[in-house]
Amino acid sequence: MVHLTYFFAVYGSLINFIGINVLLALSLYVTLSAGQLSLGNAAFAGIGGYTAGILTTQFGVPYLLSLLAGALMAAIVGFLLGMPVLRLRGVFLAMATLSFGEVVRIAAINLKITGGAEGLLGMPAYTKTWFIYLVIAVVGYFLSRLRYSRAGWSFESIREDETAASAMGINTIYYKTLAFTIGAFIAGLAGAMYAHLNYIITPGEFGFSAAVNLLIYCIVGGSRVWYGPVFGAALLTALPEILRGIGVTAGPIRMFVNGLILLIVILFLPNGLISLFQRRRKVAVSVLAGAGIGDN
Amino acid sequence: MLLEITQITQHFGGLCALAGVSFGVESGSVHGLIGPNGAGKTTLINILSGITPATSGTLRFDDRRIDTFPAHKIASLGIARTFQNIRLFPALTCLENVIAGQHLIAERPLLPRLLCLPGAIRQEAVYKQQSLDILVRVGLADRADFSAQHLSYGERRRLEIARALASCPRLLLLDEPVAGMRRQEMLSVAELIHTLSQEGMTILLIEHNMAFVMELCSQITVLNFGSVITTGTPAEVGRHPEVIEAYLGKSDQDA
Ligand SMILES: Nc1ncnc2c1ncn2[C@@H]1O[C@H](COP(=O)(O)OP(=O)(O)OP(=O)(O)O)[C@@H](O)[C@H]1O
Ligand SMILES: [Mg+2]
To answer: Which CATH number fits domain A13-290: 1.10.3470, 1.10.287, 1.25.40, 3.30.70?
Structure first.
């Protein structure tokens, strides 16, 4: 018990941070599962975070309600953004969502209500560790069921071949927008929870590098099953601490290890690190999964 | 007529791929669409399935105008297709490809799944059995759990037919379904097409193998340089002078 308390005192904020990043990676997983490369999910987290933070600090809205409002606000913006930009494909969609992220960041810097460049201050630390992990469990369960629903199969079909999917009767615009909106909702929720961890949020936290990091979590973990991004986010967020544990403290070496992992995965494991654990039971799982019994 | 094609024209920039194509496809028939390379056969199938909109002309399916519909809406009326340059879902297994193809007939609602209701699991077992039955029909039952990208060329063509059948279409558009197949495999596909037709499915078949087309089709439309030369029974088409001319000039390339 003493050990556990000590552990949390030292690593508590890291554990919280891992949880938030896992949720953000899951948000991007949904969008990627429909084959859409979005770099806007960090901005959706920002929208959720600022919305929830403003509601609790300036309007006295209860915590849970502020989370819902933050997630919904991100989802609405995601829906409105998705309608025009999801007609773009591949790298053009990535660029459009990236510029959207910049617009959100610059708006947060320049608006009065968001607290400008210094950030939004005064959020009480309502978000508890157990709550973060409860939300991860709920979202993970939701996504595992979504995968074998009609929407999940549509996402999968669109990701594999959009033209063939539309010839099969799938309304690709509808399902792409749906995936994008669900992703924005989860990102907004994660952002809203994050805003109530540390008293302060600043525009820079939701910028370009955050957006790219989310993509790296998904690539490294593997984005074909929902627990791939969970693994990727947890591993890469904890990596600096793990490296410190084995005696590597110099910053550049950490960056090097990060980059090396990404490179190895891209070159040799197109389905992410998680595929290392999957390969042997692949056939068995796919048989069960068709009947809705499999859990991935 | 189940499908009526009227004055369909398609321009790609300066190129006129189809110039006022008109013909009808009788309900329950196997209708052949033949013509030399570049005649515009695939272009026409792409228009019929809503993948590319025609420059002008009208399409009627079941007395309903469909030429302005997007691809998914046309599919939802009961028109399924395969692609000449095979478009499977490569990372999915054969079974999963067919399951994905059930989009139009399988509800698969989310809520009962979230609640783990037994009804949802039972229903899924039914869908899965239907998919397996279709794999049996195309002779891929033993490949159910193989990833689609690991199939042979002919197997991939047959899997594409299976995926198209999964939505129980009324009209099936096949773009060179036996290209690259060995004789035995080709015969099994011919038999499948024949059976499907007897079950009441209407089939529009593009194919270069003349014996295959002559054997299976009750009506054949010949296309050349984007225009219809003639539509008629295999015997009528076979002795049409313009058809003989078009094919004698090109036949060695089409084999
Ligand atoms: N998207 C496109 N853009 C420009 N030209 C095109 C396009 N699609 C087809 N074409 C041209 O239209 C003509 C008809 O092509 P199409 O693919 O329909 O022929 P086809 O009858 O299917 O031939 P094949 O037997 O070789 O499959 C060809 O000259 C082709 O180059
Ligand atoms: Mg063709």
So the answer is: 1.10.3470
